[in-house]
């Protein structure tokens, strides 16, 4: 199991130009969460939901990793096999920065899923309700992201990694979405040193031994430089 488990949220991608969810002008203000990030919302209006994710897919296509993503890739290179990134983000900026051991617990914008047969494939830039599954031909495709009320991906793998972690860090997450919001407490209870790197305190701040306040593009490279001594 990896010694360093890092949970990332929208805040690590903010300086790459991608919106966060709960800050001023956050994504959920423009689009009510119930309408675009729940299975019910998708059933009600698949056109609106595809529009929402098509807009984000276009935004992500223009985004580049920032120094925070790159610092985590350096950490993984220096500590081979010892770093796991569990990201709540559905962008691929960790991979673009060179990280390899990345688990997308809320799915990926770049992937599509068939609701009929469960097939997964690389999503086109723009998805529509008329798309058909390359596997079974059903016109029942959806973005391969985890909506509210759906089970996040990789939970067994995540819980095993938290149990063995020596260090647990959370970067750029507000600690308001479960079960990710409970990871710090779990890691803390199982003996890990817990570090929160964020612009401001989060809802989970009490679960962390250490806090490094500032923008990810500054505090994450500093933290990694210290770890690599
Ligand atoms: C589930 C994908 C159960 C789509 C998303 C208790 C236990 C279990 C579940 C629940 C529970 N209580 C409530 C629930 C239900 C629900 C939930 O948590 N609701 C909340 C709103 C109360 N949870 C779920 O439904 C989850 N599923 O639990 O299933 C189950 C059990 C059995 C069987 C079936 C199911 C699924 C949740 C996943 C939802 N999908 N996204 C998409 O992206 O469109 S969640 C969405 O919000 C994002 O993925 C993101 O992960 C998540 C959290 O947002 P953050 O990443 O934290 O971003 P946010 O904007 O909130 O904060 C940004 C932070 O960055 C801030 O702190 C800010 O200060 C900081 N920041 C900003 N700029 C910078 C910065 N930091 C550093 N530098 C900067 N420059």
Tag the structure with descriptive keywords.
19% strand; globular; single chain; 229 residues; 35% helix; binds ligand BV8; six-stranded parallel β-sheet; three-stranded antiparallel β-sheet; Rossmann fold; SIR2/SIRT2 'Small Domain'; 10 helices; alpha/beta
CATH architecture of the largest domain: 3-Layer(aba) Sandwich
* CATH topology (level 3) name of the largest domain: Rossmann fold
**What's the overall geometry?**
globular
- Estimate the strand proportion: 15-25%
* Structural class based on helices, strands and sheet pairing: alpha/beta
Task: Name the poorly predicted regions.
Answer: none
CATH superfamily of the largest domain: TPP-binding domain
Radius of gyration over C-alpha positions, nearest whole angstrom: 18 Å
Main sheet overview: 6 strands, parallel
What small molecules accompany the polymer chains? ligand BV8
Helical residues, percent: 25-40%
- Mean pLDDT over the full residue set: 96
Distance between the termini: 22 Å
Which CATH class of the largest domain applies here?
A: Alpha Beta
Number of strands: 9
Strand order of the largest sheet: 3-2-1-7-8-9
| Tally of contiguous helical segments | 10
- Topology order in helix (H) and strand (E) letters: EHHHHHHEHEEEEHEHEEH
How many structural domains are formed by the residues? Answer: 2
